[in-house]
Amino acid sequence: MGNEIHTRALAAMLFGYSLFEFLLRRKWQTQVNDGREKMKFAVRGSFGLFISLFIVTLGFTSLQLVLSYIVIAGANFLHESLRVGASKWDARKKTLEGYLFKQVLFVIGIFIAWRLAIPLQLHGWYVSVEQWLLASIESLNHPLKEHGGVLMILISTYLFVIDGGASIVRGLLNKFANINDTKQPTLEQSRNMGEWIGILERIITLTFVLTDNYSAIAFALTAKSIARFKELESDKKFAEYYLIGTSTSLAVAILVGLTVKKLIGM
């Protein structure tokens, strides 16, 4: 029972971070315009990260966890504050590396916080509330009790490939200035639509990987290439942009899918 609670707690912490980083943060960041706004975002975002982590682990929150969340939120504030002066650096070359470094660092931080908080146990009041809620939806009672941790990991994975995958693709494309900075109308008009296509592409690919339908990935990629055939044939820059973006998008979804399958034993 103890190991089950500990696994569930780790899954909940990763879910809370993913919920903030790949969903809530994206919505807030669109409002950032200047240095002052960035600082406001840093404060608001760090508080939001703390609340997200606190709420999803409310059932087994301890003093050690709360203190760890304060440290993690403080690290997020420091990271966002440093980005205020990012215009002084070559942001084009540092965006992808910085983004990947941040994700790895925060996941390690969450894992350390989890390890330091062990042993954990569910609070009595939370168990009572959970049993009452699940009793009202009998069809979901058993699946949520038995596979709640796996469900949170899967949701976190989808959130990452949707938003995190888009950030990785953009970061890599930004390194190819001769492709990404082109003023050709075809490319400019395709960027927003291409990002949404990429999101759907990663969702579909991840689903196929998790369900072992690898041949369907090739079919989906072929269908996408056929739809873009005329543009690929007539516009070399667009073809390069397409190949880099699509290859990166697929690689993210496949690698993440295989990793998650290994971790949760699917």
How would you describe the overall organization of this protein?
The protein has 266 residues and is mainly α. The protein folds into two domains: 141 residues, no CATH class; 91 residues, no CATH class. 84% of the residues lie in helices and 0% in strands. The protein has eleven helices and no strands. Helix 1 runs antiparallel to helix 4 and helix 6 runs antiparallel to helix 8. The longest helix is centred in the middle third of the chain and has 36 residues. It is globular.
How do the helices and strands line up, and which of them pair or pack?
Elements: H1 2-29, H2 35-56, H3 63-82, H4 91-117, H5 124-135, H6 138-173, H7 177-180, H8 185-210, H9 214-227, H10 229-234, H11 236-264
Helix pairs in contact: 1-2, 1-4, 1-6, 2-3, 3-4, 4-6, 6-8, 6-11, 8-9, 8-11
Short description:
The chain has eleven helices and no strands. It has helices at 2-29, 35-56, 63-82, 91-117, 124-135, 138-173, 177-180, 185-210, 214-227, 229-234, 236-264. Helix 4 (91-117) runs antiparallel to helix 6 (138-173).
